[in-house]
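User: Earlier you gave me the apo prediction for this protein. Now I'd like the version with adenosine-5'-triphosphate bound, so I can compare the two side by side. Same sequence as before, with the ligand SMILES added.
Assistant: Got it. Here's the input I'm using:
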Amino acid sequence: MLRKVFTGRRWTVEALRGVDFTARRGSVTALVGPNGAGKTTLLKILSTLILPTSGEAYVDGMDVVSRAAEVRRRIGLVTVSDRLLYYRLSGLENLTFYGILYGMSVSEARSRARDLLEVVGLGKWGDEPTMHYSTGMTRRLAIARSLMHDPDVILLDEPTLGIDAVSSRRVRALVRSLSDGRTVVLTSHLMKEVEELSDSIYVMRAGQVIARGSPGEIISMAGRVVEAVLRREEVTPELSRFVVRDDRGTVLLRAPADVVPGDAIEVREVEPTLEDAYVLLAGEGGADVRPYQFRRGGAHLHGGPV
Ligand SMILES: Nc1ncnc2c1ncn2[C@@H]1O[C@H](COP(=O)(O)OP(=O)(O)OP(=O)(O)O)[C@@H](O)[C@H]1O
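And here is the structure of the complex with adenosine-5'-triphosphate:
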């Protein structure tokens, strides 16, 4: 069970309170949860950027603490704030530079960089300084960079944050293709994206995993879901997280059937979505949901026990 406590002189934050995590090769695993749930902290531990306070984490069966250097060689990390690109350099030069840092010869690095620019759909832009790239293009270049050393594991923190719908589609298609033979772990707040992309989902809240399963399994945790129109005064604080539209006087909810009051103005059963399950699990009161049972302690990225 992984724990991570951040401490200052006068404060302590328990970012991970005993998390058990396994991601499999050839699949996309998503970490979802409200702000502060501990998703990024978990990614940082898996990528050896920070040390766990206690517990173990493995990548390909290797302990991220005692074998950090080997783990790093097997991991590609893509984060939201990309300060690792040199804006005056072209996409090709940026990638080549990283290839050289990974020990490749200049020609080897340049050739791999050219190939990867094609993979991420930036072939035509390779010679353009990256300061001219859009946010979506920069994100794709960051993904290409994370692939330079051909890692087995790709960790992506909010890969489509801040990019437009068309670019997001390209990034999602790219992420999906990355899982071919690799282990992909991503965080996202977009439940549609998670539903579309992932094979396995961990729902985190306040440093703990409160549910995990395939998208279908997580969706089924929402039970029967209805859309209901209520008078505004009927919306209790417990119901407020289910509100999807607030017109004057009446309010539209999407909620589990059993929480909707019997005297609702209108009730209609709908197909549950991942977002419905997420709102139920991770929203206020989500802590009431009992955590699922886990088989082994620690965190594993493929190769670990299942
Ligand atoms: N370096 C740090 N020093 C102190 N506290 C930190 C540090 N990094 C994270 N935390 C705290 O740990 C908790 C978990 O943060 P984390 O960034 O892992 O959450 P998250 O699930 O990724 O959230 P978000 O969705 O907002 O990215 C938060 O309370 C955060 O404030």
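For your comparison, keep in mind: The domain at 2-213 is CATH 3.40.50.300 (Rossmann fold).
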